[in-house]
Every structure is written in structure tokens, then in C-alpha cells.
Amino acid sequence: MPPQAKALHALVKKRTARPPMDWPLLIIVLTLVGFGLVMLFSSSYPAGYYRFGDSYEFIRPQMFYAAVGIIAMLIISHIDYHILHRFALPLMALSIVLLILVLVIGSEYNGAKRWINLGFGTLQPSEIAKFAVIALFAHIVSLNHEKMKTFRYGVLPFLLVLGTIAGLMLLEPHLSGTIIILGIGAIMMFVGGTRLAWFGLGIGVGGAGIAGAVLLVPDLVPYAMTRIQMWQDPFNDPNGYQTVQSLYAIASGGLTGLGIGNSRQKHLYVPEPYNDFIFSITCEELGFIGALLVIFLFVALLLRGIYVAVNARDKFGSMLVVGVIVQITLQAALNMAVVTNTIPNTGVSLPFFSSGGTSLVMLLCEMGVVLSVSRQSAVKRL
Questions:
Q1: Contact 56, 45 (CB under 8 A)
Q2: CA torsion, points 107, 266, 298, 32, in degrees to nearest 10?
Q3: What is the pLDDT at residue 217?
Q4: 109-117: long-range contacts at Cβ-Cβ below 8 A with a sequence spacing of 24 or more?
Q5: Low-confidence ranges of the chain (pLDDT < 50)
Q6: Domain segments of the chain: what residues?
Q7: Is 126 in contact with 348 (CB distance < 8 Å)?
Q8: Tens digits of per-residue pLDDT, 135-165?
Q9: How far apart (Å, rounded) are the C-alpha atoms in residues 92 and 291?
Q10: CA nearest 281: which of 332, 255, 246?
Q11: CB of 370 within 8 A of CB of 251?
Q12: What is the pTM of this model?
């Protein structure tokens, strides 16, 4: 073969070759999903049987959403993540429309309107809003990373977005989702290069926003105060039943747990054993060792995510990974803190474990974006 033909053949091969999969990251994600499905079935089948006459009421749709999410994740991992530059603004507009729509036609549960009934399932707009914030912030930072020290580029657009999203979510009310989105935004701003001095301004604006929310939505005050009073002494508060039962479950697990399927608290003692308080059932059945395993998996995801972000091809990819990993690990940390009564009950779910189709599919799609960034980065693979 002539040298020119060899060179052309090598160039074509290089351009058409598929970048390798980030197997360590994929294995961590699939392990979390598999572990989550096992614990969801174990924690939910009594509630499904007692309340609906079907032990598979919660695990059946979750397995379907997991399959859809995994397929979507693998497909997205082969798509160039730079396409999100085009969709960052439309996705944010869509999330705002959905957050307004849920206030009008949303299904109310436990005093909150967070879900839109689609007939065949439910849609939680706040889950879409989380990724919309990540995509838009990554877009803004990548375009203006040299101007992030200024107020105009490093503060103002982020405040406008966070103020709008947080305000709409407080109207649901959805305090935990608001905290998570504000946390994602703050960390992405910090990593993106916003001056520390501006965060002092942000605290002031946040305080003013809270005061405004109190004036506009007075129902938030008793809602929040009830949670705080319950947190301070759940054993002597009539509203602390759920937290008390969660603590009983954790204490019952001991070092090695009662064994998969042997939890007592999931038999309608813990009101939401398949959702916000699934970690307490995990502790009861798998003990301290099982709890450490769950924590280890989320820490492994965090460390791998940091590695991918540091080695990303460009600022946009790096910021996307930072946002996704912060969302997942922050949400997991808040959930575990609530379950152990370290912080007041905020109604936050455990990623990959808690029941919820919208959340699981969105999480897996986001991990597909992270895998796409990893494919085009300098990350070392197995």
C-alpha cells in the first residue's frame, strides 16, 4: 500500500473509531441501580401488598424505568455532549413552563403539588429543572469563563435563573429540591470562577428571598417550623413518628443487619419505606456494614466524577460533570442526614434507591452525559 494511502487509511480509522467506554464509572452506576432495585423491592413489597394488594406495585414500574434509563444512558454516552449548548436555553424554558404547570394541574400529595399525572405515570418537573440548571450554568460558564470575576457575567445570570427556579419550587412547596438546586448552582458558580466576595452578596439576596417567600407564601412558615420542632425532639413531638421509626430501624440493624427481607419497620411502621426513608430499611436489613457499602458507592461515584471533570476535554464538559456529580452526592448526603435525624426532615429521596420513575430516568440520562464527557477526555480506562 502506498504511503499516501496508508496515511489516509490511518486518518479515516482514527476519525471513525469509537472512544472506549469508561468502565469504572459504568460499573459504579450499574451497581448503584442494581443495589437500589434490590432494596426497593425488599422495602416496598409489604406496603404494596397491604395498600394495593400487589407486592410488585412499586418494583414493577421501577424496573421498567431502570431499563429505559439504562438504554437512554448508553445511547446518550455515544452522543457528543456539545449538543447541549444548543438545548440549554430551551431546556430551561421547558422546565419553567412545567414548574408553572404543576402548580395549576399538579397532583397534590402530603400538602405539596410536585407531580403531573400523565395517565400512565407521573412527571416531576423539579427533576428536569435540576438538569436544566446544570446544562445552562455549564453553558454560561464555558462561554464567559474569562469574565466570571465580574458581576455581570459571574453573578447576575445565575441569580436570575436560581431565583426563578427556587421561587417556583417554593410555591409547591418543595424545600428539599430548592436546597439541592441552590447547592448545585452555588458550587458550579464557585468552580466556574465566581469571586468569593459575590457569595456574601448571594447570602444577603438569599436572606431577602426567604423573607419575601415568607410574606408571599405564609404557609411556608408553619411548614418549616413544624419540621424544625420535630427535628429537635422527635420522640416527644406528635409529628416525629416517621423519624422515630426510622431511628428504630437503624438501631435494629446493628453491625450486620437482620438480613435482606427481614426488616420489621417496613411493615407500615416507617410510612415511606420505599421512598425518602429507604436508607433506614437498608440499615436495618444490612446493618452498619450495608450502610457503609452504600456510602462507599456514592463516594466512589464522587471520586470518579471528579477525575472525569479534571480530565475533561473543555470547560463545558468539566462543568457538566461537576453539576451532575454534585447533584447526586449532595442529594444522597441530605437523604442520609434526614434519615439519621442529623438535619430536619426535608423530603429528599435517595438517588438510584428511592421509588420514582422520573428521578431514575433523569439520573441515568445525566450519567449518560458524564460518560459522553469521559469518552472524549484524557481519562485512563481499564
A1: yes
A2: -80
A3: 60
A4: 111/223, 112/172, 112/173, 112/174, 112/347, 113/172, 114/172, 114/174, 114/177
A5: 7-17
A6: 21-375
A7: no
A8: 999 999 999 888 888 888 888 899 899 889 9
A9: 36
A10: 246
A11: no
A12: 0.88
